[in-house]
Design goal:
The protein is an all-beta fold. The protein has a single domain, classed as Beta-galactosidase, Chain A, domain 5, CATH 2.70.98. It contains no helices and 24 strands. The chain has a nine-stranded antiparallel beta sheet with strand order 9-10-11-12-24-20-19-14-17, with no helix packed on it. Strand 2 and strand 3 form a beta hairpin. The protein is globular and about 60 Å long.
Length: 309
């Protein structure tokens, strides 16, 4: 298997371009936010076809969502009124936390066929997150699939650390009406968040499998799903007019958020955690929060496979 990697600078931003020459798949990652800005596949004519919304575009759009695949952490979605208490210590931050605003360190030592980025406690303030917790984020070619892995390390000698994290990729469609999203059979629990914060209301959905059982017109309000008992977890995004399909393996992922602002895309967001409740809880008591014992690590991953039909 042959891979090529190069750096590319656009204005004051640095990007890493990794290509799987054998399978004809290319990733472009911005070191600002460690964000995937392109997942592309070469078609039979040799052209690169992008799978992300606004694939490989870095300028601001005239309207609508401006991102491609936001990295979320050390919390995700929102904390109420942009502040919370963590063991009595005040934390402040905006939507999806601070990782999206940081220039990540690129790890040159990692193996061929992957891109790894690092955030350390030196990169964020105690108000953003007060504990000594380091994160490595890796995008890796694994045959025809692309794996995304998070590896946290808690360097606190005594304290358990609490984190929420995930990825917020938007998959491109010809139009808002053209895409389909198929879900495997199993028991799902929907968490309602009518004001962007959890109300505490839930609904259990015993789903037989197939196209998502949710109205598209309500996607701007988000569908937050807990995968309570979903034994096999292949999900599929398809845009029939363009022939683009993305197979998504969410094995081991506890939550999934589906969202769109009505533009030509669907965000399929693997999540390890939930947004705040309307009646806010202390950060360490947030529903879905992940724990890392003192001196230990937490690893999590999922994968996608872009396919041209």
């Amino acid at each position: 298997m042959k891979f090529t990697r190069r750096e590319e600078k656009r204005g004051d931003r640095l990007f890493d371009v990794l290509t799987d020459d054998e399978n004809g798949v290319r990733l472009i990652v911005s070191r600002l936010g460690a964000e995937l800005i392109s997942v592309a596949r070469r078609n039979s004519s040799g052209e690169w076809i992008g799978f992300l919304y606004r694939d490989n575009e870095i300028g601001p759009p005239e309207e609508g969502w401006a991102n491609h695949a936001t990295v979320m952490g050390y919390y995700l979605h929102r904390i109420k009124d942009e502040r919370t208490l963590y063991r009595g210590h005040e934390m402040r931050g905006g939507t999806h936390s601070f990782l999206r605003t940081k220039v990540w360190h690129f790890d040159e030592s990692r193996r061929e066929g992957e891109l790894t980025y690092r955030i350390t406690p030196d990169d964020f303030s105690p108000t953003e997150y007060p504990l000594k917790v380091l994160l490595h984020l890796t995008y890796r070619f694994d045959g025809s699939r692309i794996s995304v892995s998070f590896q946290f390390r808690n360097d606190e000698p005594e304290l358990t650390a609490h984190v929420g994290f995930g990825l917020h990729p938007g998959f491109a469609a010809t139009s808002f009406d053209s895409f389909r999203f198929e879900m495997p059979a199993g028991l799902y629990r929907r968490h309602f968040s009518p004001t962007n914060y959890l109300s505490g209301e839930t609904e259990d959905i015993q789903f037989t499998g197939g196209e998502m059982p949710f109205a598209k017109e309500k996607l701007p309000g988000s569908y937050i799903l807990e995968l309570v008992d979903v034994p096999n977890r292949p999900f599929t995004f398809t845009d029939p007019p363009s022939g683009r399909t993305v197979a998504i393996d969410l094995t081991g992922v506890p939550y999934l958020t589906l969202w769109s602002d009505g533009g030509p895309f669907l965000c399929v967001e693997p999540c390890w955690g939930l947004t705040d409740h309307h009646k806010q809880r202390a950060f360490e008591n947030k529903e879905g929060i992940q724990e890392i014992p003192a001196g230990e690590e937490l690893a999590a991953s999922f994968s996608i496979e872009p396919v041209l039909l």
